[in-house]
Amino acid sequence: MTEQSIFDYTDIHSKDMFENAYQAISLTEMWDYMKKPTESYMFSSDKEIGIISKKMEELGYYGHSGASFGMTMRNMQFIALHGLEEHKKMWLKNK
């Protein structure tokens, strides 16, 4: 039996990245940090990004390029600011 994902509305690659990041941010309690403006996640030297990245790897995701990490984190930032339902609406609208 396949486990239901909160990101079932996305493509398979995004789903894996988003699930991992969402769980890492939740476990490290970094949702407030994700609401803060940032110029770049890909080139960030913020300690919070290091904590989140480490947790993502501990949870088993090692497949990020700089671009996929930045895209994933921007999606997590959108969720932090607007919620999951708005993310789903935005994703499906732009599909």
Structure characteristics:
95 residues; mainly alpha; 5 helices
Describe this structure in words.
The longest helix is centred in the C-terminal third of the chain and has 17 residues, at 66-82. This protein has helices at 12-27, 31-34, 47-58, 66-82, 84-93. It is built from 5 helices and no strands. It is mainly α. The chain has one domain (12-35, 44-93).
Quick gist of this model?
This protein is an all-alpha fold and about 100 residues long.
Topology overview:
Elements: H1 12-27, H2 31-34, H3 47-58, H4 66-82, H5 84-93
Shape descriptor reads globular
Q: What is the H/E order? A: HHHHH
Overall mean pLDDT score? 92
Total count of strands:
0
Biggest sheet, open or closed, and with what strands and sense? none
The end-to-end distance, rounded to whole angstroms, is 27 Å
How much helix, percentage-wise, in residues?
A: 55-70%
Poorly predicted spans: none
Q: Which structural class fits the helix and strand makeup?
A: mainly alpha
Strand composition percent: under 5%
Q: Roughly how many Å is the radius of gyration?
A: 13 Å
Tally of helical segments: 5
Count of separate structural domains: 1
